[in-house]
Amino acid sequence: MKPNSRIQQIGIDRIVRLEWLERVAQLALAGNPPDTVKQSMVEFLATSFPTSSPTVRGSLSKTVTILMNVWLSGPRELAKFRESGLELLRIKSGGERLAIHWAMVMATYPFWSAVSGQVGRLLRLQETITAEQVQRRICEQYGERESVFRRVRYVLRSFIAWDVLQETDTKGVYRRGLPVSIDDPQLIAWLIEASLHAKANGSTRLAELLDNTSLFPFRLKRTASESLLMASPRLDCIRHNMDDELMMLKKS
User: Fold this and answer.
1) HSE-CB of 247 using CA atoms within 13 angstroms
2) What's the number of CA atoms in the CB half-sphere (13 Å) around residue 71?
3) In total, how many domains does the chain have?
4) Which letter does DSSP use for residue 202 in this model?
5) Res. 234: pLDDT tops 80
6) How far is Cα 214 from Cα 127, in angstroms, rounded to an integer?
7) Is the predicted pLDDT of residue 166 greater than 70, yes or no?
8) How far apart are CA 23 and CA 40, in angstroms?
9) Are strands 235-241 and 203-205 parallel, antiparallel or unpaired?
């Protein structure tokens, strides 16, 4: 699949739970081949989808496909990035692990990034947001179709399951969860790389990347471009002046 076609695809049509991604990643880190991981996840999630038939591509099959794409069988252009993400998971814990999974979903499924970007923008302006506000903005980008409305709901429900959004007493109205601070330059560089993979042009000003609304659950430490380039061999930078640095993905 070409990178630009990946950017335009929606892809996510099920709730993605953090604990499911964690299980896939741990199976991958243990050295299991993709077929073994897939079968293990089908068996593990079977009770969560009791009406699914093994002969019909239903919710169980679609969910496992999404999970596998994130950490094992996703786009070829993300292979090295995915491998480095798994290595980060070996050494990270807590909120940093959440950030790694979040970024890998963003890079694999840019629709996740589009929805989180709109959520982040809205939360900068107001304390609570509604599903309708997010859906309206996403439809401006992807078209006003019922499938787009439904898939925005899946992503928002995923955010709630991850506890980065919290439900209020009013149905369909959400507030921000507690933010996670990210201080490690290596992880910040990896999150920036994820942001670039989720963009069509693959380049953005550093200041915008450090304040990316698609990463709204996290607070990234202000980090110099030199530190980021040292942390990731896959990043490059063009400096127009001290306050205008353009980060981009290195061409392979």
Assistant:
1) 31
2) 31
3) 2
4) S
5) yes
6) 17
7) yes
8) 10
9) unpaired
Within a domain: 92 = no
Residues in the chain: 252
Whether the pLDDT of residue 26 is over 60: the answer is yes
pLDDT average, residue stretch 196-211: 89
Predicted TM-score (pTM) of this structure: 0.93
Give the DSSP H/E element, type plus range, for residue 165.
strand 165-167
What does the alpha-carbon distance between residue 138 and residue 147 come to, in Å, rounded to a whole number? 12
Residues 74 and 128 in one domain: no
CA distance 37 to 83: 16
DSSP, collapsed to helix, strand or coil, labels residue 220 as strand
Residue 139 in any domain: the answer is: yes
3-state secondary structure of 128: strand
Tokens 């007493």, residue?
Answer: 169
Residue 120 has pLDDT above 60, yes or no: yes
CA–CA gap between residue 156 and residue 142 (Å, rounded): 16
Summarised one tens digit per residue, pLDDT across range 61-70 is 899 999 999 9
The token pair at 200 is 């069509």
Find the domain containing 165 and state its range. 123-176
Q: Could you tell me which residues are beta bridge partners of residue 128?
A: 175
Sequence-ordered alpha helix ranges (H) in 77-145: 79-91, 95-108, 110-125, 131-142
Distances (CA, A) of 100 to 91, 171, 220, 246: 11, 30, 13, 23
